[in-house]
Amino acid sequence: MKDKKIVVLGTGGTIAGRAQAAYDALGYRAAEVSVEDLLRDVPGLGGQAIASEQVAQVDSKDMDCATWRRLALRCARWLQQDDVAGIVVTHGTDTMEETAYFLQALLAPRKPVVLTGAMRPATSPYADGPRNLADAVCVARAASASGVVVVFSGEIHDPVDVRKVHTYRLDAFGSGEAGPIGYVEEGRIRLKRNWPAALSDGAKPPVDTMAGEAAWPRVEVVLNHAGADGAVVQALVAQGIDGIVVAATGNGSLSQGLEAALLDAQARGVKVVRCTRCAEGVVLGHAADRLPHSTQSPVKARIDLLLSLLAGR
Ligand code: SIN
Fold this sequence. Notes:
Blueprint: E1 5-12, H1 35-40, E2 50-58, H2 65-79, E3 84-90, H3 96-107, E4 112-116, H4 129-140, E5 147-152, E6 155-157, E7 163-164, E8 173-174, E9 182-185, E10 188-191, E11 219-223, H5 231-238, E12 243-248, H6 256-267, E13 271-276, H7 298-311
Parallel strand pairs: 1-2, 1-3, 3-4, 4-5, 11-12, 12-13
Antiparallel strand pairs: 5-6, 6-9, 7-8, 9-10
C-alpha cells in the first residue's frame, strides 16, 4: 500500500533517547530526539509516503491519562482519512504494553496501529530503533494487517498477550504462552495467528467524548505479598478511590487482611478486580469467589476498569 501514507506519531521513549557518551546504554535521557529526526535514520522507507507528528515527548514511566487521551484522539482522526494506510506510534518500552492495550480496547481499529520503540538510545552505535521503526512501517502498510500491535525485535505481538519481559536485552518483549502473532523478516511478514480481535470484555466510552473528560477516575493497583494486611486499601478508600485492581497471588488468592479490606471497599462502592501477579496463566474463577476477577494482567485490568468507569459517567 505504498500509494497510501503511513502516519508516525512520536511519544518519546528510549527510541528518542540521547546519551552524552556514545556507548552509554544506561545514563541517557529518554524522549529528546524528534520523530522527524528518527525517521531520517530509518533505512528502506524509500518511496513510502510518511507523515509525522510529535504527540508527546515523555519517558513512558511518566505516561498518563491526558497523554493517552491525546494519542487516542490523534489516532482516531488519522485513521478516518482514506489516504492513510496505518499508523506507527514510537513509544517508550516501559509502559508500551499498557498504551497498546488501551488503544486496542478503545479504538479496535480496522487499520493497523503499530507501537514500537527501542532498548538503546538513538545516539548509540547499537541503536535498535531504526530497525524496529522500519519493521513497524512494514506492518503498518501491510494490506492484511489490522488492529493495534507491538512490533519489536522482529516480532509482532497482540496487545492482550504482550509484556515487557526483560530490563536490558534488545528482545525485551514476549507474549508468554500465546507467543507472538508473527514475525517481520527482511521486510516480509510471516503470520502465525490472526491479527488482534476487538476486546469484548468491558464497556468503553466513545472516543470523541473523551475530549471533554477533565479528570479520569482514580484506579490503583495493589499487591498481595507476604505480610500484606490491607492497610494500603484502607488508605486508598479514605482518599476516595474509584477502583482497585489487586495483583493477587497464584490463582487470585489474597491474605485474610487484604481480602477483608477489599470486601469492605467493595461494599462502600469501590470497584474491585482481582488478577494474578503470576507472569503466566490467568485467574480461573470459582462459584465461591466474593470478588470479581479479570484474566488480564494487573496493568491491563486497570485499563479495562478505567474505561468502564469512564463509560459509566
Ligand atoms: C521509556 O519507557 O520511555 C524509557 C525506557 C525505554 O523506552 O526503553
